[in-house]
Design goal:
Structural class: mainly beta
CATH architecture of the largest domain: Beta Barrel
Shape: elongated
Radius of gyration: 22 Å
CATH class of the largest domain: Mainly Beta
Number of strands: 13
Helix content: 10-25%
Largest sheet: 6 strands, mixed, barrel
Distance between the termini: 58 Å
Strand order of the largest sheet: 1-3-2-6-5-4
Oligomer: single chain
Length: 193
């Protein structure tokens, strides 16, 4: 589990501008049994964490006056021009907490029909909303495109093999990925017109 260090701040202690000038990012940590507490995290450390990990992961947050907490990143506010991180919301969870989270879908392999050049893979859904215990949260859901081996092959939410205890909140019939004839293949079938 990746660890992030933070320090508690008081609203009168420092302005948000002065925190950012010192290389700190204003943040807040809250949870079901934890009242919102303003904190500050090291800018370099949060960028490094986000470069190497996903946001839908549980992190260890060490806050000087509160000890160590298991948290998820609930929201990141960024400057629209520079994409610099302006503020982070951390949600404290226990491993036995049931959570709802958006999890990305990773597509691996290649459809045998895509390799012929006559079909292309058409992705319809790039993430799923899942409900599970915090300790069971997957970082991603993998879909093997090699299973798309016939022109009418497709993968829907109901077709996914999810870890035990993980429930999708999307409709079971929601389309994730399918094959589509390429433009060249459609033209060839219609006589090139």
């Amino acid at each position: 589990m990746a660890t992030l260090e933070a320090r508690q701040r008081t609203s009168n202690q420092e302005t948000l501008y002065s925190l950012r000038k010192k290389g700190l990012v204003p943040a807040i940590v809250y949870g079901k049994d934890l009242a919102p507490r303003p904190i500050a995290v090291d800018r370099h450390q949060i960028f490094q964490l986000l470069d190497t990990h996903r946001t839908n992961k549980i992190y260890s947050l060490k806050v000087d006056s509160m000890g160590e907490l298991n948290v998820m990143i609930k929201e990141i506010q960024r400057d629209p021009r520079t994409l610099d991180i302006l503020h982070v919301d951390f949600y404290a969870v226990s491993e036995s907490t049931r959570i709802r989270v958006q999890v990305p879908i990773e597509f691996v392999g290649q459809s045998p029909l895509e390799a012929t050049g006559e079909y292309e893979v058409l992705v319809q859904t790039k993430s799923l909303e899942l409900e599970c215990l915090a300790k069971d949260m997957p970082e991603a859901i993998t879909v093997d495109l090699e299973k798309l081996d016939s022109p009418d092959a497709q993968v829907r939410v109901a077709d996914l093999e999810l870890p035990e205890g993980v429930t999708p909140k999307n409709r079971p019939d929601q389309l994730i990925v399918k094959l589509n004839p390429t433009r060249a293949a459609r033209l060839a079938r219609s006589g090139g017109s």
